[in-house]
Amino acid sequence: MSTLSSQTHTAPTSVETFIPVCEPVLDGREREYVLDCIDGNWVSSLGKYIRKFEHAFADHCGTEFGLACSSGTAALHLALEALGIGPGDEVLIPSFTLIVSANTVCMTGATPVPVDVERDTWCIDPQEIEKHITPRTKAIMPVHMYGHPADMEAINYIAKRCGLRVIEDCAQAHGAKVRDRRVGGIGDVGAFSFYGNKMITTGEGGMVVTSDPEIAERVELLRNQAFEKERFVHRAVGFNYRMTNIQAAIGLAQCEKLADKVARKIEIADTYRELLIDCDDLQLPVCRSWASNVYWMFGVVLNTSFGRRGAEVREMLAQRGIETRSFFVPMNRQPVYQGTSDRWPDLRGHFPVSERLSEYGFYLPSGLSLTREQQEYVVSNLLECRA
Q: What is the DSSP string of 30-76?
C-alpha cells in the first residue's frame, strides 16, 4: 500500500526499514460497497451511498444534516459561503494551521485574521480572540488541531456575545469531543476532510455538517453549481463540489468502523506516552479535562534541552527509515501573505507560540497499522538524536 504524503521527505539511505508517517487502512466493507456501485452503474454524484454516508456521518456528529462534497477545502468554502461571508468581512483563524484556513476565507473575498494558539492544545487561544475582533469580524473558524478540540465553550461564548458565527474545521478530529458533544456539531457548521491520511477516508472528499436547515439548504445548492428546479437558470454562483457515489461507498464502510479507528489512535498515543514517560526534552500532546483527544497524529515539540531544531531531527530520523511530518508553517510566515500582492492580504505579525511550534514541532508515524515494535524503534531513534 502506498504511503500518502502531502510533502516531500528524504528517503532513508542507510537502512532497509521504512516506517511511514501514515497510510490508509481499508479493512471494512469498502470493496463490497464499491462493487455494488459498479454493478449498479451508479458511479457519479448520484446513487444510494451518497445519502447513506451523509446520514451515517451526521448521526455520528449529532447533527441534523450531513452534506458530502469533494474535499475538506470545499467543505470549508461551502460553510463560509452558506453563512454569507464575503468582501469586507473578517474571519478569525488560528495563526498555526494549514494554509487552507486562510485560503478559503480569501476565496469568499473576505479577509482572514490570524490569532495565536495555546501552548498545550495548539488550538486557537480564546484569550487572544477578543483582541482581534473588529466591526468587520463576522465569524471565528477554529481548527481542532491534530485531534484535540479547540475550547468550543469559550469560543461559543465569545461568538454569542459578539454576534459572530462559528465554523468548526474538523479535518483532523473525527470523533473528538468537547464534554459529551462531538466536534462538528458544536458551532453553527462543521467541515470535515476525508483525504487519504485522515481518520476515515474516501481518497479525496469532505463533509459539511449542521443542524441549521437554512445553512444545509444553501450548502446543497452551492455544491452543485447552484442548479435549481428550472435547470440551467441560476440565481447564484455555485461550484462543482460534488462527491461521487463510489467515494461515498468507501466513506460509509469507513464510517462503520470509525469507533474502532478512534480507539486504535488512542492506543497508539498511549504507547508513545508510555515509551516517552521519562523524557523531559519533549512536549507531548495533552488532553484537557473537558476534551476527548483522538490523536489523529502524535506530535512532539522539542524543548531547548533537546539541543536540536525540528528540521535537523527529522532529517536524522529519515536517514534511519522513519518518516515524519513537520508542523504547519504559521500564516504570518507564508510567502503568499507577505504583502507582496494587491490580491492577497498581508498577514505578517508576531505570533510567538505558532512560530515556536513550527520551528520545533513535528509528528511521528501515527498510522492505524503501526505496531508496538515500530513505535519502540521510532522512540529509541528519536532519543538518540538528542545533542
A: HHHHHHHHHHHT--SS-SHHHHHHHHHHHHHHT-SEEEEES-HHHHH
Q: Tell me the pTM.
A: 0.94
| AA letter at 31 | R
The DSSP 8-state label assigned to residue 28 in this structure reads S
- pLDDT tens sequence across 207-249: 999 999 999 999 999 999 999 988 899 999 999 999 999 999 9
Which domains does the chain show, CATH number per domain?
A: 30-255 (3.40.640.10), 258-384 (3.90.1150.10)
Distance separating the N- and C-terminal Cα atoms of the chain: 35
The three-state DSSP-derived secondary structure of 278-300 is: CCCCEECCCCCCCEECCCCCCEE
Q: Counting beta carbons within 10 angstroms of the beta carbon of residue 62, is it exposed (0 to 12), middle (13 to 18) or buried (19 or more)?
A: middle
pLDDT tens digit string along 283-317?
999 999 999 999 999 999 999 999 999 999 999 99
